[in-house]
Amino acid sequence: MFTTMTKRMAMAAAMGALALTALPAQADVIDDIKARGTLRVAVKADYKPYGFRDTSGAIIGIEPDLAQDVADKLGVSIEFIPVVSSNRMQFLQQGKVDLLIATMTDKPDRRKVVFIADPNYYSSGTNIMTPKSFGFTAWEDLRGKPVCGIQGAFYNKKTGREFGAKIVAFKGTAEVYAAMKAGNCVAFVYDDSSHVATLEQDEWADYEMPLPTIDDAPWGLAVALGEDRFHDMMGEMIIGWHKSGRILELETKWGVANTPFAQDMHDKYK
Amino acid sequence: MNTQKHKILPVMMAPRPRPDDRFHLQPWHGLVLVAVCIIATIPAAFAATDPERASILEVLTRWMPLMLKGFIFNIVISVLAMAVGTISGAALGLGQISLNPFVRKFAWFVTQFFRNAPWLVLLFFAMFLLPFEFKIFGLTIPLPDWLKAIFGLSLPVMANVSEIVRGAVQSLPSGQWEAAESLAFSRNQVLWRIILPQCVKRMLPPWMNLYSILTMATVLASIVGVSEVMTLTGQILAAEGGRSDLLIPMYSFVLFLFFIYCYPIARWTVRLEKKFAVIT
Fold it and tell me: Are strands B133-136 and A59-60 parallel, antiparallel or unpaired?
């Protein structure tokens, strides 16, 4: 009797200490957002045209536009929090952001950490960008060669392990492009959607995307685990975007050729 | 060195700062530095002539307000980290000369611990150990990344200030203590009325040096995701589509901003050091 009492008191004290430290509110996140009046969204700020900065410092692009739609639906203002691949899921777990739309590939192991909404809103595969002069034709050609990548991207591991490339991982795309020009690596392994946008510029006229795209994987936007209502609402929003052709429209607005995935989804939900 | 004839003995003359900086660098020399950097990259820019592409200068002007905003953020971080570090460091430094052996040992240990830890590691600790918000009595206090960065950077500053204070107090001739004690001042009175006022002059130059170093160390915050000038420059380069010819001019501009801010501080420190060197 006495021991259970002590145990209970210890438990209560521990719970109290826990509550005092850092936990986000237990209420539904949609209520929190409405009470706060702001939707906090994690987006990329170095991934043109999906999320990048304009000269005033504001973050713009396809994903910020999608996030704005969500904020409009909820009737709140929006706040963009710039993230990189290596910290985006932690921000969502910690409750620092409410929603994650940051070019994240939908992977089973990520679904255990964050709550990815269905269906997927976008898709891209993995490919390399490399000088035409190297004449790569297969992924196996990269064996033993230095290949640039972005820290936290899942395909670094795969390119390294399955194809034997030596991955040199950088923090952002700007550093990778400089390293490519300086000849520090023979290729840049990244999303093909990014390569398509980059290769359109004259600066990269001597470069190509020669390999077959692998791992064509959908992108997932995510909310924190356990936020069922927000998760379902996002699912409906994504279907709405596909139905209305919003994604295709945004691709055109930001100068990207319409991707087969966006076209297929539009046809499917139309 | 000085061949001029003196009517009075040189030791009796008022000390005058002597310029031993042969180059007489002025802040505007930084402008020349950045101009050289930009001009050096012009041939590369013309090598791939493309009329549709904005020139380097155009790009730089377009992004300058944003970069300046980022730089001001760096300065805010440095000033606040210095303020926090100075206050806590002064307390710790006084602890190091305390008569209580426990306080003295403890202050010595804390000082040595933070003085010999890499700044970046301390910054990482502050970033990942502190919560992003905490609740006290139902009040939610947010703890944004930049505030954590200030805290992380103030730790090494605290340890260095502590050493500056201890060094300055111990560098005073012991006669000061003895004379004051013989006049029946208590230890606290000696410390606050006699010793510390004399120490301020000795502490000022190393303190300013430390501030200069801290300002230059604020770019470390870019590694932990604070949107300061280095982070923004990387994002600007990405927004320009990864043009590699922009890399050197953009980072040169960052270099120039830091130079123009830190160099006058360094010059002023040298002047103060000279001024205080003779009078003890």
Answer: unpaired
